[in-house]
Amino acid sequence: MDSASVVYQIIGNIWYLIPIAILIAILKSPWFKGVFGEFVVNVSANLMLDKDEYHLVKNVTLPTENGTTQIDHIIASRFGVFVVETKNMKGWIFGSANQKTWTQQIYKHKNTFQNPLRQNYKHLKTLEALLAISDKQLYSVIVFVGESTFKTKMPENVTSGFGYIRYIKSKKNFVLTDAEVSSILRQIETGRLTQSVGTNREHVRHVKSTVSGKKAERSCPKCGGHMVMREAKRGPNAGNKFWGCTNYPRCRETISII
């Protein structure tokens, strides 16, 4: 039997593993984690919030002075406008409201990522300007989905699982009228960029250019050394890009790129 026949025979015996490997790669990708996290929030909001009172708008890309900003979910009601940022992460999560970065720990591996409250702050300010409403009518909500556990006390608006539903329902005072809620929904639909592959690609390009622009300024928060962009090759974060300290292995500090 020649070598070509052997190769064909091997491929014939293991062909079914190829789609399985592709599926596993997709399920572990940051893209799928983001999509799945948003799906969980979409379903739970539709099932657990009164649709006549709470109005869900998802995947909103808005123009800003220096590019675009993308909001996972906006829930408008007479009780306020809730701006929801979703994080699909696993492991232990450490952080506080005032910290610039938070920490994710999976076994002995630690990884830092941007404080999602700070990340969501830009979303709130963009909506505040677009809708001409006050910060007392806007609420920042952070939702962690996946197998993650908070190991430090979190602010009440940082939740896991369905906790964000409880937080939203805890707001009992009307701060908007029905007419104002209707106007807000119209303004969001008018102000948002058209949902398309091109819009998403442009937003990703803006995020990447922002990250690149900060590259020369990035310094290690632990030792003060320079940080460079790297990509995790294995483990639970395989494929994710992150900032790694050039003083490795003496310094193992990392910062996630969100």
What percentage of the residues does DSSP assign to strands (E)?
25-35%
Mean pLDDT: 80
Helical percentage: 25-40%
Order of helices and strands: HHHEEEEEEHEEEHHHEEE
Instruction: List low-confidence stretches.
Output: 206-216
Number of helical runs? Answer: 7
Shape: globular
Tell me the major beta sheet.
5 strands, mixed
Total domains: 2
How are the strands of the biggest sheet laid out side by side? 1-2-3-7-9
The helix-and-strand class reads alpha/beta
Protein architecture, described:
This protein is of the alpha/beta class and about 260 residues long. The chain folds into two domains: about 30-215, no CATH class; about 215-258, no CATH class. About 40% of the residues lie in helices and about 30% in strands. The chain has seven helices and twelve strands. The chain has helices at about 5-15, 15-30, 30-50, 115-130, 165-170, 180-190, 195-215, and strands at about 55-65, 65-75, 80-90, 90-95, 100-105, 110-115, 140-145, 150, 160, 225-230, 240-245, 255. Strands 1-2-3-7-9 form a five-stranded mixed sheet, with helices on both faces. A four-stranded mixed sheet has the order 6-5-4-8. A three-stranded antiparallel sheet has the order 10-11-12, with no helix packed on it. A hairpin with an 8-residue loop joins strand 11 and strand 12. The longest helix is centred in the N-terminal third of the chain and has 19 residues, at about 30-50. The chain is globular, with a radius of gyration of 21 Å. The protein starts with a helix and ends with a strand. Residues about 205-215 have low confidence and may be disordered.
